[in-house]
Amino acid sequence: MATHKVVSVDLGGTTIRAALAQTDGRLLKVVKKPTRAKAGLKEVLNRVEAIIREVGAEAWAEVRGIGIIAPGPLNPWEGIVIQAPNLPGWENVPLKAILEESLDRPVYIGNDANLAALAEQQFGAGRGLTDLIYLTISTGIGGGIIIDDNLLLGAQGLGGEVGHMVIDPQGPMCNCGTRGCLEAVASGTGIARAARRRMTESLGQGIAARAGSPDAITAQVVGQAALAGDALAITLIQEAAEWIGLGIVSLMRLFNPQMIIIGGGVSQVGDLFFERIQQTVQANVLRPYWENCPIVPVTLGDDVGLLGAIALLKRQLS
Q: Is there a shared CATH topology between the 5-118+302-317 domain and the 128-298 domain?
């Protein structure tokens, strides 16, 4: 397969990262700038265009395409960002059309979790596999599903929202407006909420000491307390892992993947988290589903976004 030079962009609410890269995954040059989201839509669009021109300047004549990993629900075919909560004013923004007109290069867009799944399949833990699921357990929970070597997008590009499977109808309200989503009970936000709710228990003293006050409790604080042996923190991490495990059970039954890949800040707790997920899965689904489906951590680190956009370009330009 031919290798092409491309520009990859990871558009976040705080930072924009861009790379001049090759479709084999090599990052030739990386530039990072603040997004300045509060300055509004036009300013952020200008900054995106400027960083693309900057990172690609030395090889612009060779750049075959631009890939962008963007937040929020979007239409990946028309390249329209439907809504980006961390980018004020970003509603129904035709990002693909705007950039193609100004840059005279084809532009391809995908959401963060979907393209992270592609990145891990092309360049990371899932190389050589045709059926895998990627989960990111962070402030929220996102997912990307690849089946028969194709990214599952759905009719409007809104498929694969694994974080919003309803898993506990009596559970807490999710930001999406539904009660008991997986994200509401097992994300970093959900873990921190549960910790604050149970701070009156004496077993929570280790968390309180690290946070300083209930309002300062985060999933990271809970994770650190768990690794230090705090009983409540361990319970909270393992409860979240059980919910994740139950979500994976449903995903295994629906899609029968070859691998589940888990990333995001919560996953950094390590064995305490992954072992309880594995135990929950094995206790709740038939052996053939999990026996040949390892559940593994991500391998690509901070570059997963840039590599995801490259993986998308690799498919589009091949």
A: yes
Res 37: pLDDT: 92
Percent helix, strand and coil across the chain, each rounded to 5?
50, 25, 30
C-beta separation of 315 from 308 below 8 A: no
Cα Rg for the chain, rounded, in angstroms?
A: 20
| Residues 197 and 188: beta-carbon distance below 8 Å | no
What is the chain's mean pLDDT, rounded?
Answer: 91
For the chain, the domains span: 5-118+302-317, 128-298
Topology of the domain covering 128-298 = Nucleotidyltransferase; domain 5 (3.30.420)
Inter-CA distances, 51 with 9, 102, 136, 147, 267, Å: 9, 13, 27, 34, 31
- Cα distance between residue 4 and residue 184, in whole Å: 41
Pairing of strands 259-263, 295-297: parallel
DSSP tag of 84: -
H/E stretch holding 45 reads helix 41-56
CA–CA distance, 234 with 239 (Å, rounded to integer): 8
Contact between 274 and 297 under an 8 Å Cβ cutoff? The reply is yes
- The one-letter code for the residue type at 300 is L
Q: What is the mean pLDDT of residues 209-224?
A: 77
- Between 73 and 278, the higher pLDDT residue: 278
